[in-house]
Amino acid sequence: MKFYDCKTAPSPRRVRIFLAEKGVDLETVQIDLGKGEQFSDEFRAVNPDCTVPVLELDDGSRISEVTAICQYIEDLNPEPALFGSSPEERARVSMWNAKVEQLGLSAMMDAFRNSAKGLVDRALPGPESYVQLPELAERGRRRVSHFFERLNNQLADNTYVAGDNYSIADISAMVLVDFAGWIKIGIPDDVEHVARWYSDVSKRPSAAA
Amino acid sequence: MKFYDCKTAPSPRRVRIFLAEKGVDLETVQIDLGKGEQFSDEFRAVNPDCTVPVLELDDGSRISEVTAICQYIEDLNPEPALFGSSPEERARVSMWNAKVEQLGLSAMMDAFRNSAKGLVDRALPGPESYVQLPELAERGRRRVSHFFERLNNQLADNTYVAGDNYSIADISAMVLVDFAGWIKIGIPDDVEHVARWYSDVSKRPSAAA
Questions:
Q1: Are A2-76 and A87-208 the same fold in CATH?
Q2: Predicted ipTM of the assembly
Q3: Where do the structural domains in chain B lie, given as residue ranges?
Q4: Superfamily grouping for domain B2-76
């Protein structure tokens, strides 16, 4: 297998943390998004959507999208279970991972990509060009703040994002918190449960990935 | 189990089709999104994110998010497999389901919610209010067109969205095509493989769900 990574980007970091938790070490190719290497003809043949991460399987086929890659790693390396164990826990993990993506990470992507000076006409990842919308940057910031409150309510009653056990939903949410720091959105003072949880998950060795 | 549905909405329709393919019949509660029933105190206790679908499990816990609900149904009713069988096929299904959601359905939601007369200040689902952005409606239409081309390339070489077998990715993509019809985005004339596939999947009895 071969892992197409970008060591500075949030999405492939989710996979790197997942691999570290599993103790899986893969041959890795760095794609420098800052230099636009994702738009090269060579990389378009790997992923026509011009995004990382991508996992190249031993049969030569390629899998993109973070959750799909992590699920494949989990299928081949079931322990420790990071997608949940029982059907009920698996459902909670899948639900929370989706909420972090849709309510948190996509809002943060809107906030960042619609305001970064280096991303004019690159408001969305992928091969097409889209202009930045300042209103979308502002809306994204507001949505991230709302999501921190939502997450705080969940973490008031739960050790981890999806319940009693550390899971891919914690990885996604920790990467969101660090990504939000890029544009100076910190954990608000009044969301104490997020602060407790973030301090906890950040101490895991995998957080350095 | 109890299924919170809205018979007119695209997201819960994905679950209804999934249930029909599985031959699973659930006690169903209709939430009328047009009347704002998702914002009632009663429903907020079911899902604080004020969205359908929601599945209430026998232990009283609630699962929202389409893919999480469908995965739970699959775990309890493995046949026919709609998330793939081998790890490789499961990864392809998860990847394509994610691509349909992120590149197709979220673009379509932008196009619809930012232009519908009945959704002023409701540009996003959920408890908070967000103003409509006309540029986002226009961008969404453009993205849906691009996604139809992307899907066409995939279906040129594959019977179904994720390969040889019908899966949840086909359900998501078929619902996208029908949702796009709400704002008169039809399948473009030059994406013949999407047209062939759509004609095929639409004839399945589950498509009536």
A1: no
A2: 0.98
A3: 2-76, 87-208
A4: Glutaredoxin (3.40.30.10)
Between chain A and chain B, how many beta carbons pairs sit less than 8 Å apart?
A: 102
Question: pLDDT digits over A18-45, tens only?
Answer: 999 999 999 999 999 999 999 999 999 9
Note the pLDDT tens digit of each residue in B155-193: 999 999 999 999 999 999 999 999 999 999 999 999 999
| Cβ-based burial of B204 (10 A; exposed 0-12, middle 13-18, buried ≥19) | middle
pTM above 0.95, yes or no: yes
Mapped onto helix, strand or coil, the DSSP state of residue A20 is helix
Name chain B contacts of A134, Cβ cutoff 8 Å. none
**CA–CA separation, B22 vs B52, rounded Å?**
20
Q: Which residues of B touch A69 (CB under 8 A)?
A: 91
- Alpha-carbon gap: B100 to the closest alpha carbon of chain A (Å): 11
CA distance B180 to chain A (A): 20
Closest in B49, B61, B98 to A65, CB measured: B98
The burial of B2, by beta-carbon neighbours within 10 Å (0-12 exposed, 13-18 middle, 19 or more buried), is given as middle
Domain B87-208 fold: Glutathione S-transferase Yfyf (Class Pi); Chain A, domain 2 (1.20.1050)
